[in-house]
Amino acid sequence: MHDSDLANESSQVSSSTERRRIVVVTGGAGFLGSHLCDRLSDGGAVVICIDNLDSGRMANILHLLDRPGFTFIEHDVCDPLPITGRIDEIYNFACPASPPKYRADPIHTLRTSVLGAMNALDLAERTGAVVLQASTSEVYGDPDISPQPETYRGAVNTVGPRSCYDEGKRAAETLVHDYADRRGVSTRTVRIFNTYGPRMAWDDGRVVTNFICQALSGEDLTIYGSGRQTRSFCYVDDLLDGIQAVMALPDRVVPPVNVGNPGEFTILELADKVLERIDSPSRLRFCDLPVDDPRQRRPDIGLVGRLTGWQPKVPLDEGLDRTIAYFANALDCVELAR
Fold it and tell me: DSSP secondary-structure letter at 288?
């Protein structure tokens, strides 16, 4: 759909849906966004999915295109969102989250984080919608404390290779705060920790995807540094349960909250778990640690638990089984393995 059709489409959707909830999902063709679109559509909402397809994929939402109440609009959130009519909720998920993809065009990544958040907030101000900003654990940088509570201000390099994403998300959080404080917009911010599951792209570049696809293709698993650095891995279903619980809170403004799984594993432990599940000749190949790569990443989820009662449920072993099954049957990985 062209941008010129956007406002007209929104008006038609609004006039034909009576009191069904109308939800905008930016980045809706991406890994997280597409799963969220599924949930919202299954729950009876009218869903307007916006994505420029830089990192999102049509394959993630093809099954939704003919569903009544679902609309896909190809649009870059760096440009204003000329949607009119009633909007109830906005989930701003638009921004590449994988290191290779956000580094490919760091200026556009920063613009997407900042201008995308501003345009989502402007839309919320015009329509009275509640907006949820998808932030990231990257705002904590390479942390000096663990686990990381929301009160920790982070240790972020402003001029490193990850800065376009880290600082872009930090600036977006500031915008969310200021629009709520000065313009009365109803807002929520969630700091998402490492998440994995079906629909991640095989070339995503994050460690779970790397290990699974390398093992399936018989390549050696790439370990950066010693492999003793840690991560906490949250399965996509758990993460979205937490995000939707935060959106449902009655408060007009919800401060930034961590959403993730506090279970902590070394990269070597993750590699072992993947190789235990895949019959592969893969071995471990050690490489230099990338600049600014965090040594430890683990969320303190006490705040979101107190606010919503949410806790993650899917253990890493079970989540890996589901994710490996997806990639083993995905065309991308079949092609990769040839």
Answer: P
Residue 118's φ and ψ, nearest 5 degrees, are -65, -40
141 in Cβ contact with 166 (< 8 Å)? yes
Phi, psi of 86, rounded to the nearest 5 degrees: -80, 135
Asked whether the beta carbons of 160 and 138 are under 8 A apart, the reply is no
Q: pTM to 2 decimals? A: 0.93
Of 102, 165, 179, 196, the active-site residue reads 165
Residue 152: active-site member: no
Say how many Å lie between the first and final Cα of the chain, rounded. Answer: 36
Domain with residue 287: its CATH number is 3.40.50.720
Residue 87 maps to a domain: no
Is residue 59 situated within a structural domain? no
pLDDT tens digits, one per residue of 16-60 = 556 899 999 999 999 999 999 999 999 999 999 999 999 999 999
Which residues touch 231 (CB under 8 Å, ≥6 apart)?
Answer: 194, 207, 264, 265, 267, 270, 297
65 within a domain of the structure (yes/no): no
Mean local confidence (pLDDT), 200-216: 94
Q: How far apart are CA 225 and CA 220, in angstroms?
A: 15
Is 34 domain-assigned? no
Pairing mode of beta strands 70-74, 89-92: unpaired
Per the structure, the complete domain to which residue 306 belongs is given by: 95-337
